[in-house]
C-alpha cells in the first residue's frame, strides 16, 4: 500500500485532472527542487473518478493564472504546521497576458514583436479567449499552452 504522509509547511495542489499532474510538475520545474516533492497520480476521487496531487514541502511562488488555464478545477492548499492555513479554488482567468500567443498573421502581435499578447475570456464553459487586438478566438487546451 502506498502511504504519503502530510507535510508540515508547504503547498498541496489538489484536484488536478488525471494526467495533468506531470505537466504541472514539469512546468513548475519541481524536478530541480532541493526539497521534498510528491507527485501522486491516478488517485481515486469521488468527484473526478481519478485525480493527480502534488505535495510540495516548501512555500514557493506559483502563478495561479497558469494553473487556472491548465485546469480551472484545481485547489491549492497552503499548509502551515500540518494544517490548512488557506485554500484557493482556481478558475479560468478573465485576462491573460503573455501566456497565450495569437497565431493570426494579420494581428499586430505578429508584426510588432514588442506588443504584448493579451487575451480576454469570452466563454468560460468552452474555455475560449479572444485576442485583444484582432479579436481572433482560441479555445484554450493544455497542449496549446505548452506550444506557445
Give the strand line-up of the largest sheet.
2-3-1-4-5
Largest sheet: 5 strands, antiparallel
Q: Show unreliable segments.
A: none
Give the DSSP E fraction (strand runs of 2 or more residues): 35-45%
Query: From N to C, what is the helix and strand string?
Result: EHEEHEEEHEEEH
| Helical fraction | 10-25%
CATH topology of the largest domain: Alpha-Beta Plaits
CATH architecture of the largest domain: 2-Layer Sandwich
Strand segment count:
9
Please state the average pLDDT score: 88
Shape: elongated
What separation lies between the terminal Cα atoms? 40 Å
Rg, nearest Å? 17 Å
CATH level 1 class label of the largest domain? Alpha Beta
Q: In terms of structural class, how would the helical and strand content be classed? A: alpha+beta
Query: Helix segment count?
Result: 4
Q: How many domain units?
A: 2
Amino acid at each position: 500500500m502506498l502511504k504519503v504522509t502530510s507535510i508540515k509547511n508547504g503547498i498541496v495542489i489538489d484536484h488536478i485532472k488525471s494526467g495533468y499532474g506531470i505537466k504541472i510538475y514539469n512546468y513548475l520545474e519541481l524536478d530541480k527542487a532541493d526539497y521534498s516533492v510528491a507527485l501522486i497520480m491516478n488517485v481515486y476521487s469521488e468527484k473526478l473518478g481519478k485525480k493527480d496531487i502534488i505535495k510540495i514541502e516548501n512555500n514557493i511562488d506559483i502563478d495561479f493564472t497558469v494553473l487556472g488555464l491548465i485546469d480551472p478545477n484545481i485547489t491549492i492548499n497552503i499548509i502551515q504546521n500540518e494544517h490548512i492555513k488557506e485554500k484557493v479554488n482556481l478558475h479560468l482567468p478573465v485576462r491573460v497576458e503573455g501566456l497565450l500567443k495569437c497565431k493570426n498573421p494579420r494581428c499586430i502581435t505578429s508584426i510588432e514583436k514588442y506588443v504584448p499578447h493579451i487575451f480576454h475570456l469570452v466563454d468560460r464553459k468552452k474555455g475560449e479567449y479572444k485576442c485583444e487586438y484582432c479579436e481572433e478566438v482560441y479555445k484554450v487546451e493544455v497542449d496549446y499552452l505548452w506550444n506557445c
